[in-house]
Structure formats: C-alpha cells, structure tokens
Specification:
Low-confidence stretches of chain A: 1-18
Structural class of chain B: mainly alpha
Number of strands of chain A: 3
CATH topology of the largest domain in chain A: MetI-like fold
Shape of chain A: globular
Number of strands of chain B: 3
CATH superfamily of the largest domain in chain A: MetI-like
CATH architecture of the largest domain in chain A: Orthogonal Bundle
Strand content of chain B: under 5%
Number of domains of chain A: 2
Largest sheet of chain B: 2 strands, antiparallel
Number of domains of chain B: 1
Strand order of the largest sheet of chain B: 2-3
Low-confidence stretches of chain B: none
Order of helices and strands of chain B: EHEEHHHHHHHHHHH
Oligomer: heterodimer
Largest interface: A-B, 100 and 103 residues
Largest sheet of chain A: 2 strands, antiparallel
CATH class of the largest domain in chain A: Mainly Alpha
CATH class of chain B: Mainly Alpha
Radius of gyration of chain A: 25 Å
Strand order of the largest sheet of chain A: 2-3
Structural class of chain A: mainly alpha
Shape of chain B: globular
Helix content of chain B: over 70%
CATH superfamily of chain B: MetI-like
Distance between the termini of chain A: 30 Å
Radius of gyration of chain B: 23 Å
Mean pLDDT of chain B: 85
CATH topology of chain B: MetI-like fold
Chain lengths: 290, 289
C-alpha cells in the first residue's frame, strides 16, 4: 500500500513544465537510441543487400537496394557441398563443445557454489586465466598436440580446444546462478533421503534451468564465433564455415555475392536464439557476476 | 552464503580439472619447452637457455606490436565505455521497445569474428561499400588498404561497432538494479540530472562497469580475427597487434623458439591483468553482499 502511494506522489506534485521536459527527454532518448541502432544495423543491412545482388550489379553499379533481386547466391551455398558442409562441421563441433562444457561444468559449479575445499579459490582463479588466455598463444601447441594424438582435422579436436575458454565460462556463469538458490533446498532434499545424483538431476537442475540455458547459449556462441583455433586445427573434413569463407578468392577475384550470403547465414543462428536470452545476456558476458 | 568445508567436493571439480589440464597445461608445457630450445629441423633440438627471451626483449618488433596494442586498447576503451553508458542511459524504460533494443543491440555480439571483419571489409571499400563510397563521394580520401590512418580508423570503428553493446548491456543491467526510491529521493531534493548520474547511477554501475572495462581490455588485448580479415595487419605492419604478430611468427614462419618465448611473455601480461581483474571483482563481490 505504502509503495503505491509513494509511487504516485512525484507524478502528482510535478508541475506541468516538468512534464513537458520529460516528454522532450523521451525524444532525445529515442534519437540517441535510434542513431545508435542505425549505426549498428547499417553494415548488417549492407551485407544483406549485397547478398541479394548479382556480382555484376555489385561491381558495376552502386545501388542502395537490389534492383534485380536474386537468391542465386544463397542457392550456391545451399547446394554446393563444399559450402554447406562448412555449416554442418561448425554445428557439429559447436554442439559437441556445448555438451562437454556443460557436463563437466555443472558439478564443478555446484562444488564452488556450495563448498569450501583445499585450493578452491586458486582453482577458480586459474580457470578464469584460461578464459583470458589468447587463442594465438595456443594455436601452435594445439596444432602439435592434436596432430600427435591423431585427432587433427576432427570435430572433437576443435570441440576440445574450445573447452579452453568455454569450460571456465560455463563454470563461472553457472556458479553465479547457483549462488541464488538457497542452501536450505539442498539440505531438505538430503533429509528427505535423496542421493546426490538424484537430487542434482531431479530437483537442482530444474531450479537453475534458466542458468543452464544461458550457459549453453554462451558456450554455443563463443564456439561459433571463434575462428583462429578452429581454422588451425582443421584442413578438410572438419573445416568450419568461417574458414571456408576466407577462401572465396578465386581466379576471377572475390565472389562478393556468395561471400555476403555466407556471412548472412552465419548470423542467423545467433539471431534466432537471442530473443530467449535477451534478459540474461549481460549476466552471461559478465561471467555470471551481475 | 555460508559454504560448508568439504574436501570431497574435489571429486566434483575433477572432470573440469582433467579437461582443462589436457587443453591448457599440456600445450603450455610445450610452449615452455620450445622457448628454451633451438632447432634446425629434423626434430633435433638444442638447449638455448634464455637466448630467445633476450633476443625478444632486444627486438623492436615485439615492442612495436605491444605499443600498438596498448594504443589500440586505450582508444577503444576511451570510446566504448562512455558511449556504452550513454546508450544504457537512453534505453527505453519499459514496453516492447526494451526487448527490441536489447535484441538489436546484441546482434553484433553474436556474429562470427571473421564475418565482422568481412562486413567491414565490404562496408569500407571505396568501390562497393556504403561507407567507402559515401566518403569518396564527399571527397574524403579514404582507403584502408593503403593509408595507415584510414586503416586504424576502420579497425577502431569496427571494434566500437562490435563491442559497445557489451558495455551498454552491462551498464543497463547495473541501472536496472537501482530501486525507484533513489530517484524519488533525488527528485524531492531537486537534484540535477548530472547529480543524479554522478551520485546515484555511476556508483551503482561501478561494479558492472569494472567488469565491462576489464573484459573489453582483455578481449581487445587478444584481438586477432577482425583486424586480420580487414587489414591483414597492414598497410606495412601498422595494424599488426600482438596476436597477429604471434600467429605470423608461429604458424607463418614456424619460428618455434622466438614464438614460444613471445607466447610466454604475452601470457604473463594477461595473467597479471587477470589477477588484477579477479582481485577487484572479489572485493566488489564482498562489498555487494
């Protein structure tokens, strides 16, 4: 009740002049946001625009929207195995990586959020340093390591390599979500006779379902956007789409239309799921610390 | 939350430990190994001691790359942090526009890094890109493959385009956590807009902003793909940042020893910064709860 009254007081007391200023404030708000969004969307629009043009139109005339709308560039990608296998390869190792990262991160995050043990703080920090490790440092040793164990140019090699930064990320995000679950729930469940695995799967995981979703999204995303390691570790069989894209230079110059279409298609997966995590995306980027 | 001491928790952490040991410790050991040896091919290695490190410290190449890296990171921080805060302050208050803005803002963050490079490579080209073409039509001499200044501007604007939303999203999350009562109190005191920002919003955002600054610093410090696609480190080596230089050395020229020494120094710098990051964050956590 009191909340409702305090909410209303400023509105009632505010003189009409302030209201006018508030409306002007909304307008500057809209202008700033509008400009920023235009800045963000213009390059993406240009990519989309180019992907719908023929190469002759791209190179010979400068048009703000496609005059001869064509889907041929997309058709090229979706019918040529050399192109679409890149998407399949990327999806395979990204999904593998997400599953592995979550599977190992869930119990670890639980341990960090509930218990103290010898060296826990150091371990937690050491995990973080791997998130901060430059992939360029690891490119060469990974190349040699995976070559020597016969995993070079396989999906699992890339999936394992991406664990380098995704496992720490998943542990940190999940730990952030798990801290929000009261410990009494664990204790009650143990008193009720639940074993640890059963409690974890049946009771605890549903409670942090949104956290698992967010962690999965971020593992998926960071594995999807990474190029340096995935390119270094593959040649033919597991080559990601990102690496195939760098090879559009043919004898007749760069095939801009196809390159643009391939770029647009790599944006799609992220754009599809972003709506579901929009309220958690800050938390994910901040490693669960918001 | 009070945590219970329990040494058996180690078993829960074990899988992570094994996995990360495989994907981080073994490769790092390889690097350490190479950094103190010399090779003439044929898998024959000779002890080189600290030779590579000494050579590296005397070599201008690394210092130049480090200098460029520092300048780049400082510039993008100086642009992205204020701009991100500005955007966060101007986010719509409620309604469907909040979701629209959040989704559109997040879009650049989810684009594969080489595609980000490709987008800007196309966008900036004088013959076919909107930006390049417009600038040329306005009579501005702009060519990022020839002119170092244009290359730098392109790389910086690209990074601002790519990552400002991250700062904005974090700052927005910080602003959301401020209770309405604070604003009402400020209104009663007739505080100016600047004072509301300075004494209410900024302190409340301090925690997330710290995360944003350090994340941006880290990630810009290891930036590789985007400038590599756009400029390839050129013209000359004017946009060759640390990672680009390192990959050139390690995978391009296969100079194992110097590259390994370079890697270790690079990693040590990152470790040092991570430690600062962690300490600051833990202290903020303590203050928060």
């Amino acid at each position: 009740m009191t909340d409702a009254t305090t909410d209303q007081i400023p509105g009632k007391l505010a003189p009409s002049g302030k209201n006018r200023r508030a409306r002007a404030g909304i307008n500057t708000r809209a202008i700033v946001m509008g400009l920023y969004l235009i800045f963000l969307l213009l390059p993406i629009y240009w990519l989309l625009n180019m992907s719908l043009k023929t190469n002759t139109e791209i190179l010979n005339s400068f048009t703000l929207w496609p005059r001869n709308l064509t889907l041929e560039n997309y058709a090229t990608i979706l019918t040529d195995p050399a192109w679409y296998s890149g998407y399949i390869n990327s999806l395979i190792y990204v999904v593998m990586n997400t599953v592995i990262s979550l599977a190992v991160a869930l119990p670890a995050a639980y341990a960090f959020s509930r218990y103290t043990f010898l060296g826990d703080k150091h371990l937690f920090f050491w995990l973080l340093t791997n998130r901060m490790a430059p992939p360029a440092v690891f490119a060469l040793p990974f190349f040699q390591l995976y070559s020597s164990v016969g995993l070079f140019d396989t999906h699992i090699a890339v999936a394992l390599a991406h664990c380098l930064f995704n496992v720490p990320l998943a542990v940190w995000i999940l730990e952030g979500f798990m801290r929000g679950v009261p410990k009494e729930i664990d204790e009650t469940a143990y008193i009720d006779g639940y074993s640890f695995p059963r409690f974890f799967v049946k009771i605890f995981m549903p409670l942090i379902a949104s956290g698992i979703g967010v962690a999965a999204f971020f593992c998926f995303m960071f594995s999807w956007v990474e190029l340096l390691l995935s390119r270094t570790l593959t040649t033919v069989d597991a080559k990601p789409i990102a690496a195939i894209m760098t090879r559009t230079q043919g004898a007749a110059g760069i095939d801009w239309g196809v390159l643009a279409a391939a770029g647009v298609l790599t944006i799609v997966p992220g754009a599809l799921v972003i709506y579901f995590v929009r309220n958690y995306i800050a938390k994910g980027f901040a490693l669960g610390r918001v | 939350m009070d945590k219970t001491p329990n040494q058996k928790a180690w078993f829960l952490v074990l899988p992570v430990l094994i996995l990360v040991a495989f994907s981080a410790v073994i490769p790092l050991m390889t690097v350490v190994n190479y950094s103190v040896q010399d090779t003439f091919g044929n898998n024959e290695f000779f002890w080189a001691g600290l030779e590579w490190f000494r050579e590296l410290l005397e070599d201008d190449r690394m210092w130049d790359a480090l200098g460029r890296q520092m300048i780049f990171s400082s510039i993008i921080l100086a642009i992205e942090v204020p701009l991100g805060i500005l955007v966060a302050l101007n986010m719509p208050k409620k309604g469907v526009w909040v979701s629209v803005c959040l989704v559109l803002m997040s879009l650049p963050l989810l684009i594969p890094w080489n595609v980000v490079g490709t987008i800007w490579q196309i966008f900036g080209r004088v013959d076919i890109g909107l930006l390049g073409h417009t600038l040329a039509a306005l009579g501005i001499d702009y060519n990022y493959t020839q002119d170092p200044f244009a290359a730098w501007v392109t790389v910086i604007v690209m990074d601002v385009w790519h990552w400002t939303s991250l700062v904005a999203l974090l700052a927005y999350a910080g602003l959301q956590s401020i209770p309405d009562a604070y604003y009402q109190a400020a209104k009663i005191d007739q505080a100016s807009r600047w004072k509301v920002f300075r004494y209410i919003e900024l302190p409340k955002m301090a925690g997330v902003l710290m995360i944003a600054v350090l994340l941006r610093f880290m990630d810009s410090f290891m930036i590789y793909t985007e400038p590599f696609v756009v400029t390839g480190g050129g013209p000359g080596s004017t946009t060759t940042f640390l990672s680009i230089d390192l990959v050139k050395m390690a995978l391009g020229q296969f100079d194992l020893g110097p590259a390994a020494a370079f890697s270790l120094m690079y990693f040590l710098v990152i470790l040092l910064i991570s430690w600062v990051f962690y300490t600051v964050m833990v202290n903020l956590d303590k203050r928060g709860t």
